[in-house]
């Protein structure tokens, strides 16, 4: 979890980032909910986060085939 918290500084630098929550379900699955200013900021922000070299230690902990990314509007 420390590596996830360490990435907060990266997200804080990305335009449109608001906040995020990370939780772990009873079955061990991790869930991250990230809030962005709008849909464009979310998609551009994800690309910026993935490309940032300081994200690598966090991303290396994740099996790429286990990731599901979904976008939705907060109402």
Description:
Strands 1-2 form a two-stranded antiparallel ribbon. The chain is α+β, with helices and mostly antiparallel strands. Strand 1 (17-24) and strand 2 (30-36) form a beta hairpin. It has four helices and two strands, in the order ααββαα. 37% of the residues lie in helices and 20% in strands. The longest helix is centred in the middle third of the chain and has 13 residues, at 39-51. The chain has one domain (2-66): 2-Layer Sandwich (Alpha-Beta Plaits), CATH 3.30.70.100. The mean pLDDT is 92. The protein is globular, with a radius of gyration of 12 Å. This is ABM domain-containing protein. It comes from Pelagibaculum spongiae. InterPro entries: Dimeric_a/b-barrel.
Sequence-ordered SSE layout with sheet pairings:
Layout: H1 2-6, H2 8-13, E1 17-24, E2 30-36, H3 39-51, H4 56-59
Antiparallel strand pairs: 1-2
Protein name: ABM domain-containing protein
Organism: Pelagibaculum spongiae
InterPro entries: Dimeric_a/b-barrel (IPR011008)
Short overview:
This protein has helices at residues 2-6, 8-13, 39-51, 56-59, and strands at 17-24, 30-36. The protein is an alpha+beta fold and 75 residues long. Strands 1-2 form a two-stranded antiparallel sheet.
Q: Class by helix and strand content? A: alpha+beta
Query: Looking across the biggest beta sheet, what order are the strands in?
Result: 1-2
CATH topology (level 3) name: Alpha-Beta Plaits
Reported CATH architecture: 2-Layer Sandwich
Could you report the average pLDDT, rounded to the nearest whole number?
A: 92
Number of helices: 4
- Which of globular, elongated, flat, extended, rod-shaped describes the shape? globular
Uncertain stretches of 5 or more adjacent residues: none
Give the H and E element order.
HHEEHH
Number of domains: 1
Strand content: 15-25%
Radius of gyration: 12 Å
- Give the N-to-C terminal Cα separation: 29 Å
Main sheet overview: 2 strands, antiparallel
CATH class label = Alpha Beta
Instruction: Name the helicity range.
Output: 25-40%
Q: What's the β-strand tally?
A: 2
